[in-house]
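Collaborator request, handled under Task 6.
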Amino acid sequence: MTDKDHDGSPRIFISEVQGHQARYRKLIQFTHSSTKAAGAMLAAAVIALIVANSGAYEAFLEFWHTEAGFFFGEAFAGMSLAHVINDIFMAVFFLLVGLEVKYELTVGELTNIRQAILPIMAAIGGVLVPIAFYLAFNASSPESVQGWGVPTATDIAFALGILALLGNRVPSGVRVFLSTLAVADDIIAILVIAVFYGHSPSLLWLAGAAGVLAVLVLMNRSHIYSLIPYLAVGLVLWYCVFMSGVHSTIAGVLLAFVIPSGSRVNLKSFTDWSGTKVREAHETYEPETPVIAQGAYIETVRSLSRIARQVVPPATRLEHRLYPWVYFGILPLFALTNADVSFAGVDVGAMLASPVLYGVLLGLLVGKPLGIMLMSFIVVKLKVASLPENVNWFHMLGAGVLGGVGFTMSIFVANLAFADEALVSTAKLGILVASLLAGVLGFVLLMAQAKVAQKRGVAYLSGSSDDVTRQTAGGEAARDTQELLRELEDPSVLGEIEAAKKRGGVFEIVVDLGESGLLGGGSIGDVREAVRDEVVRVLREEGRDDLADKAQEEFREHAGEPPLASVEEVLRRERPELLKDALEREADDATGMSGDDGKRR
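Structure tokens returned to the collaborator:
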């Protein structure tokens, strides 16, 4: 058996456990997939709907109303299983949401106001217009008017899960836009829940919560980087918020913002120190001696492992640990206990005639995309921001429609907004129908645009670091790209990918052979203009404005020559060593195209 992995890197684990490691990697990939998470929640919602309209519904409700808690002598402290999910487990969900928001505010898309202004303003439009739609149906009804917050929320897991199904058939800018919009939407939803959907607050318990929060801030300022103290004090914060009357899930968000996002390790020193430790490990390793007997080697590796784990910030460690539990445990449980719309013994006619149903349904399905598109159009036309690279208005419409997938957050707000169970069920029906239609319609719109791009010969090869793909639901697209590149085996494209990786962030290569290219019936002049624009863009991105200007001059002076002649001339004069490398690669390409190894390029 070879000691190399499929990518040529050395195998770390012994051959006997390769199968276990492969299964573990598949499990990790599965539990960090946006599409799989959305599928798990959808399956739970379908089960809840089936059970709610069967003979097992009464037993189903009775089970979720079972009390769980602790006895202290004669005293009992507890709550129903349904409340455990809605008040405790969902606080953990909001802790994860808070960590994602903190990431975006610290190093993500929300740090650059120029880039973030478009999705932020789109999120605001996507909140205000649905409220207007809802109030148009319910403003005159005192019983239902308080449900205005229900159609304002976007379910980030479902929306990005649906988008992830398209893989690299859509530009990465669409994923970044929708992801950032959903995070901004979550911030607004958190504020709405905290301000408008709590009970009359107890000032005493609020003061207690403020005191606990001050302790957490002090811990952060004191550079405490262990997670355990934060989680322990966070439990006290949750209890104070729960008793105060403000919804307890807000405690999860507050806790997220005080967990350190830096590292206790001096990263500059760690580089030298770890290199020294690796050399020590190499020197003390004895190949013929059982590892259990290599005390010096084990101690060196243990020291390296202990410090290396602490390089990762506490916020990042906690987020990665929570992700599979939240998206494959908590959210499916929430869907199972809250998507139970029962038509048994219900006046279906009254439900279908209810203004709540149409306020929620149209607010999500029409108001949400309308608000997103309208605000985006205003921002772009005023030149406050521009559309993401390679993204057109049809892409924006598809993303806006996906913003109407409310589900988790909308159901959560509906439970808080209405005391009447009939109104809660009606709102849930509107949420489920709107989310289903918005998900299907948004997918179809983006798929239609992908088909148009495919016919034009456009492909989007996206990739990024793990953290960025997690934030933009681009993991599936990045994996699709790697699979495609492995099949193509094109060294020039691979070289461009590697160069883009070094620049950091999300990168994307667009191959366009459409109307401006020969495959679309275009002329040599059309190709020439496309090549010129792309060459100038790449050179300017690399900071080579001097070469970009010279290339433009050569294009103008040699208008009748082949499209790449100007590029060759600039390289011949300015960077002959680069031209030599390019010609050598061209010779290799010609050999490959004429030989058996060039049949698939």
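The cover message to the collaborator said: "The mean pLDDT is 79. The longest helix spans residues 421-456. Please let us know whether this matches your experimental observations."
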